[in-house]
TrEMBL record:
Keyword field: ATP-binding, Nucleotide-binding
Domain ABC transporter residue range list: 7-234
A molecular function (GO) term: ATP binding
Protein name as annotated: ABC transporter ATP-binding protein
One Pfam family here: ABC_tran
PROSITE patterns documented for this protein: ABC_TRANSPORTER_1, ABC_TRANSPORTER_2
InterPro entries, sorted: AAA+_ATPase (IPR003593), ABC_transporter-like_ATP-bd (IPR003439), ABC_transporter-like_CS (IPR017871), P-loop_NTPase (IPR027417)
Keyword field contains Membrane: no
Taxonomic source organism: Niallia hominis
Length: 244
């Protein structure tokens, strides 16, 4: 049986100033899965997700999201995106921030109110919506950013390093949120360079120097090369296993 993909990337290449940043990437994201993109800083993860969202154009290859060729404004409005840096209004309360972004998504009245309430419950911020964002901790700001990305009830949620600088307890809570969303049918792409976080994804694409060097379930990636850790597996697929 052929499972229709939510995201289909074919032979994608991208250069900046004559430097090849992404090289012939093929990638599928299936309904209700968490796909991790693991790679060191500068590997090309952010560039890849910007191409998928439609924020940048590829030099070669094609990207389809929900069966439409990207970039496509209508599809862009069905994607929830959280960038690496929080884009929040510090002087406003969390509720005012959510209200502002909900209006941008065209939500109004009772529907707007309900979406704000239900997404705040998901990220466990309901009790703190009246506080100004300037009084939020780093972890709370990250959760508020996730909450904003969820306001339009996206079919596809893309998170660029969502748990950087977040302590292990909060990180666990955030992953519980991702799993809840996945159970509700949302597909999630999450970039990371944290190995233990990579193991929580359903499938993992390893990116190095703009190339997708391996993609499979975390357990297959490790067992196929007899690696004990994800780091060992990454070194193996990157052809670095015997280097010091
Ligand atoms: N607009 C741009 N113009 C020129 N070079 C760029 C541009 N955007 C990205 N790059 C370069 O592309 C390479 C990949 O960057 P990218 O941000 O995609 O990596 P990354 O894997 O997401 O890294 P990090 O984990 O640090 O966020 C880097 O060398 C970066 O300097």
């Amino acid at each position: 049986m052929i499972v229709p993909s939510i995201v289909s990337v074919k032979n994608l290449s991208k250069s900046f100033e004559k430097k090849r940043i992404l090289n012939a990437i093929d990638l599928q994201v299936y309904p209700g899965e968490i796909l991790g993109l693991l790679g060191p800083s500068g590997a090309g993860k952010t560039t890849l997700i910007k191409e998928i969202i439609g924020l940048d154009l590829p030099d070669n290859g094609s990207i389809h999201v929900l069966d439409e060729k990207m970039p496509n404004l209508n599809i862009m409005s069905k994607i929830g995106y959280m960038a690496q840096a929080d884009a929040l209004y510090q002087d406003l309360t969390a509720r005012e921030n959510l209200d502002f972004f909900a209006r941008l998504y065209g939500l109004k009245g009772i529907e707007k109110k309900n979406r704000i309430e239900s997404t705040a419950i998901l990220v466990e911020l309901s009790e703190h919506l009246s506080k100004p964002v300037s009084q939020y901790s780093g972890g709370m700001k990250r959760r508020l950013s996730i909450c904003i990305a969820l306001l339009n009830n996206p079919k596809l949620l893309i998170l660029d390093e969502p748990t950087v600088g977040i302590d292990p307890i909060l990180r666990k809570a955030i992953w519980q949120t991702f799993n809840k969303l996945k159970e509700n049918g949302t597909s999630i792409i999450v970039t990371t360079h944290v190995m233990d976080e990579a193991e929580k994804c359903d499938r993992l694409g390893m990116i190095r120097n703009g190339q997708l060097i391996a993609i499979d379930t975390p357990s297959n990636l490790m067992s196929n090369c007899n690696a004990q850790t994800m780091e060992e597996a990454f070194l193996y697929y990157g052809g670095l296993a015997n280097e010091n």
